Fold:
Amino acid sequence: MLTIHAAPLLLPVGAAPVVDGAVAVDGDRIAALGPYEEVTAAHPAARVRRWPGLLTPGLRQDRARELLTRCYHPDPREADELGELPLRGEAFERLAATMDPARRAGSVRRGLQRMLRHGTTHLAGPLDTEDLALRTAVARSGLVRLPPSPTPPGPSDLDPFAAGGDLVGTAGAPLTVGGRADLAAFDVPDEAALRAGGARACVATVLAGRLVHRAR
Structure:
């Protein structure tokens, strides 16, 4: 079924912003994008999903391997003991020393899920490794894998904007007709607010046409 994703502002990257914009998705591809009235008129039978704030391309995570292999992402059932934030450094090393393969694989899967909740659809870096848990989880996730890119400064963060980049430098790929339908919606009014507040404002992530995260 063809779906139209609409928001008060569409930032396709590589093309002009569209006020009251929309992206029509057919399967895993973008069928149309532009002003909401034009897109809906061309596809009157499509299901419409309206999001607050902005629609953008899905984001690229440049430190995926570090976040998945050098951090432990606690299970919600471990929150009382370990908290909810990724464990790093010495805390990670102490836990890793006694971690069995099943627990580690669970952490990797949760890390990928948390990336999706931050609008991430593309992973950069060496992910085809001998690490079976990492390789399997990434392959099953459907996230796009990209070659390594320069490592941004500062600590690793699930928020791709934490390194200070703009949307053009952080997007996985521009939104284009015929391109793969990887997009995200953020409950902020414009790009400046998105960069200032970060990808934690993500309310929806669409991966290859599938709604894989929805916050409301």
Q: What stands out?
A: Residues 113 and 213 are 9 Å apart (CA to CA). The longest strand covers residues 18-26. The mean pLDDT is 93.
